[in-house]
Amino acid sequence: MQSALKILFVDDHEGIRDGLGQMFTLKNDFLEFVYASNFSQAEEMLEQNTDIKVAIMDINLDGENGLNLIPILRKIVPSLKVIVYSMYSDAIHIEQALKSKIEGYVTKDSKLEELEKAIFAVADGNLYYNQRANQIMHLMLNKDNADQNDKDAHILSLVENYKMLSKKEQEVFKLLASGKTSKEIAEILGKAEKTIINQRSNIYGKLDLHDRLDVIEAAQALGVIA
Fold it and tell me: Homologous superfamily of 5-137 in CATH?
């Protein structure tokens, strides 16, 4: 008889979380899930179940960054393997997750079988990243030699420059990429049109953009728009 694999599933969407856990358990009766909605519950569950081998967690966790929970949990169980299961498929969030030394990354728009595969792979001591996460990992691993590939080098530079935008500039950037004019953005955000025009100029300068097409291409590369 196969020994039980105990998993901590941390997600504040209880219906989806519990439903997935029950579905996987019905298919694999050796899986055992323990659930948590926030940081304190996750710590408590892990302290009570130190035989947990794998944790599945969201990045946006009850208003907090779930990545900050990883070192807290690994103080309790140093060998804990972590799979991030998130709606975020953009380069910024994936890079942050990979730097947290996670063992798996699966986006919520993936087939459920992919999360199941990730659980088994990570439990066996392997890494499992979906296609988008693999792309970002490849860029990170080859950062020092990125000049050998102009496209990769451009994306890496774009990611770094995007981090320099303020939160307000990121919001304006997304609206510009969606096709909104400066006047429309000003109305949406309740700002003066001149303020938006100045922010647009700052965005163009920081990201080395020249026209609206550049904005759209940059937003697609960053995963800000599809």
Answer: Response regulator (3.40.50.2300)
